[in-house]
Amino acid sequence: MNEIAQDLNNKIQQENPYVYELLSTLGKELYYPKGILTQTAEAKQKAYRFNATIGIATEKDRPMFLPLIQETLADYDPKDLYPYAPPAGKPELRKLWREKMIIENPSLKNKSFSYPIVTNALTHGLSIIADLFIDENDPLVLPDKLWGNYTLIFGIRRGAKNISFPFYTEEGTFNTKGMKEALLSKKDHGKAILLLNFPNNPTGYTPTKQEATDIVEALREVAEQGMNLVVISDDAYFGLFYENTIKESLFGRVANIHPRILAIKVDGATKEDYMWGFRVGFITFGSEFPAVLDGLEKKTQGILRGTISSASHPAQTFVLNTIRSTEFQAQKQEKFEVLKKRAFKVKQILDHGDFNDAWDYYPFNSGYFMCLKLKGVNAEALRIHLLEQYGVGVISLGDGDIRVAFSCVEEDELKDLYDLIYQGFQDLSGQNSSNKE
């Protein structure tokens, strides 16, 4: 093992052996090399005559660029666009995103957590966490209502074994008891990775304050029984809280609650700030142990260096300038209100009772999505029928659930959308009836 990696491991192990035990074999071997980038950083500070270190081209002390590109980006200084960004991201952006997190997550007050590390959006951030903490057959505990890409990220890539529990209780609340039982079912393994996504994709559900309190207490109890836990908050849709929900990430409540629990926040500007194609995400670690935070940051930088090297510099600059703008909060609130009205409109349409013979809907209070629980019609058959006969696209989940993204349908068109889904349901249920006869 590389001596730098071994040194990081020793420091983590001395301060918190539980986090060391959580690391995968790859995670233990990772380190940030003292190579070209380290030497370049030193040269940036001290090479006052000539800096012939980094692999970019310059002219007149500025990055070299094509005028035809710069013409479309005239409002930006070339130095904020063309050079490589640092592997962990632009320092100014990391600092500002951390400050933003503290404002938006009151539970983080007086908590110890890292500066966010910039990733190529959330999928990349989740894959980094998988590399750091998952070996083959390690248990990944998550609700049964989940984003399908988790299987590729954690299962196919790293060999995690999914341990699922029902998302909802019979009363339509988050199933904290099921979560706790799923975790404890792998107690003999010694560790588990818990993945929670709120607002949830696909259901559009976020826990209430009491549910969040219950979740945190359940995690503490699991840790006290001797299990080491990585608790991931996938906050892709952070901030889109419309009704009686917690108004912050679970990360703030989970961070620092027990030495056996490592809290990790994965978020980004992609969805919460309506910058999907910019691909700017962040990983933030929550630990009260400085050597743990330092070690995990350096190991994460090692993954970044060994995969993408660094995330897009222009995209980071665009996000940074957006968050700095005095118009940012007002414009963001305007978009929030649009999505909130769509969510309320959907509930109004469904609560009218016109579709009760076709489906029930799962509780939702946040995010981009909601789910229908079909009555007697196969979800995939309905999806294909709607697409081919009515030009309507929805997502089928398992045999009986349909996900509808109200985020991409105008408020005044939502009734037409659900009318067409209902028509498709009637078509298929009618065919089923005639077949039975």
Describe what you observe in this structure.
With 437 residues, this protein is α/β, with parallel strands linked by helices. Helices cover 45% and strands 14% of the residues. It is built from 17 helices and 13 strands. It has helices at 3-15, 17-22, 25-29, 36-46, 67-70, 91-104, 121-133, 149-156, 176-184, 209-224, 250-254, 269-272, 290-306, 313-324, 328-351, 379-390, 414-436, and strands at 58-59, 62-63, 117-119, 139-143, 161-165, 191-197, 228-234, 261-268, 281-286, 359-361, 369-374, 395-397, 401-405. The chain has a seven-stranded mixed β-sheet, with helices on both faces. Helix 7 (121-133) crosses helix 13 (290-306). The longest helix is centred in the last third of the chain and has 24 residues, at 328-351. The protein is globular. It starts with a helix and ends with a helix. The relative contact order is 0.13. Mean pLDDT is 94; it is low at 432-437.
In short:
With 437 residues, this protein is of the alpha/beta class. The chain has 17 helices and 13 strands. The radius of gyration is 24 Å and the shape is globular.
SSE order and pairing:
Layout lengths: L2 H13 L1 H6 L2 H5 L6 H11 L11 E2 L2 E2 L3 H4 L20 H14 L12 E3 L1 H13 L5 E5 L5 H8 L4 E5 L10 H9 L6 E7 L11 H16 L3 E7 L15 H5 L6 E8 H4 L8 E6 L3 H17 L6 H12 L3 H24 L7 E3 L7 E6 L4 H12 L4 E3 L3 E5 L8 H23 L1
Parallel strand pairs: 4-5, 4-6, 6-7, 7-8
Antiparallel strand pairs: 1-2, 3-9, 8-9, 10-11, 11-13, 12-13
